[in-house]
Amino acid sequence: MKLFVTGGAGFIGSNFIRYMLGAHPDYTIVNFDKLTYAGNLDNLRDVEASPRYRFVRGDICDLSAVLAALEEGTDVLVNFAAETHVDRSIEEAAPFVRTNVLGVQVLLDAARARGVARFVQISTDEVMGSLGPTGYFTEESPLRPNSPYAASKAAAELLVRAAHRTFGMDVLIVRAGNNYGPYQFPEKLIPLMITNAMADLPLPIYGDGRHVRDWIYVEDYCRALDLILHHGRAGEIYCVGARAERTNLEVVELILALLGKPRSLIRFVEDRPGHDRRYAIDPSKVEREFGWRPLETFESGLRKTIAWYQANGAWVERVRSGEYRQYYERMYGRRRVIG
Ligand code: NAD
Ligand code: DAU
């Protein structure tokens, strides 16, 4: 099978490429990535020499570049490429609309022109908004995005749906919860807290820390994607979650305990505007249709993740230098401490 992966130099994309090359010794993969601040070829050093892997630097908004890179006979296009960080979308939404909306339409047009057999849109549970203290997101939940990031991903879903209905394209939409694991850029909660705690820096928790996320270890998600892209039904949505709801405070306290660091590193800081209170996914459909189950518990996945960050100090050093320092100062430098 020939796969065309966009955004493969980011967190989930790089884990997915490594996973698929290992799981399917006869598959070839083209990784098409713009290498924004979040794209990092160091994430794929161990596979870059494989004759079954090829990297192309390019922007998904650039139709001629996508057409040039898309090989005849591509079986599946998996679109991970996106601007992905909610806080950055609150700072400036335009790059999110450009890549996450326009870029998806360009990919759909290119995929149709090249006769790509299947198009997999990597979406997110955030398109469904925020839950109260009970209930779960399912494939039937309405789109109710609350951040510019979530709104751009919801718009992308609608374009993908329209391509299916209008042109009969074979498309799938996959909505996952919060992924964590190796190679995640330390702007997101878990790698930020691990790398700060390792350096004895303060751990900034937004608001009261009782917001809930539903965590999935990235390799479990990659296994689910493997099943979905092979066996999913055209035009369907699939929600993937590991039934692992935790409050942010619980997550941070567990990281501190596993690292043997003091609770006094915690700082409660000014909340994120429009902060979604709770995400929780009902993954019954993927469990029922594909027999998928996560292999990691939240605790075992977090142990593996921490061990990876501890063993990869040079990677951490490189990503925490340069643009990251300015970002950190902008995001946290003047944020009010509330407790
Ligand atoms: P990431 O931010 O780590 O990586 C994004 C990648 O996309 C980077 O390599 C970047 O260079 C590339 N990219 C950005 N704009 C591009 C463009 N215009 N053209 C080509 N490449 C471009 O992202 P991630 O956390 O790995 O998320 C991957 C996908 O999964 C995204 O679509 C995201 O919305 C979705 N998702 C992520 C999570 C999560 O917890 N991380 C959960 C659910 C869904
Ligand atoms: O649910 C899937 C989504 O998960 C993906 O679509 C997004 O791409 C991904 O960024 C993530 O969004 P979140 O906003 O949930 O993730 P983030 O890691 O930014 O934050 C997780 C929770 O932790 C959220 O409630 C905000 C809180 N938080 C985050 C940071 C960075 C803090 O309390 N302090 C922080 O410094």
**How would you classify the helix and strand content by structural class?**
alpha/beta
How many beta strands in the DSSP annotation? 12
C-alpha Rg, in Å?
19 Å
Estimated share of beta-strand residues = 15-25%
| CATH fold node name of the largest domain | Rossmann fold
Low-confidence stretches: none
- Give me the CATH superfamily of the largest domain: NAD(P)-binding Rossmann-like Domain
Shape: globular
Q: Name the average pLDDT.
A: 98
Attached small molecules? nicotinamide-adenine-dinucleotide, 2'deoxy-thymidine-5'-diphospho-alpha-D-glucose
Helical stretch tally: 12
Q: Main sheet, how many strands, which sense, barrel?
A: 7 strands, parallel
Give the distance, in angstroms, between the N- and C-terminal Cα atoms. 53 Å
Count the domains.
2
Widest β-sheet, arrangement of strands: 3-2-1-4-5-6-10
Q: What is the H-and-E element order? A: EHEEHEHHEHEEHEEHEEHEHHHH
Helix content: 40-55%
By oligomeric state, this entry counts as: single chain
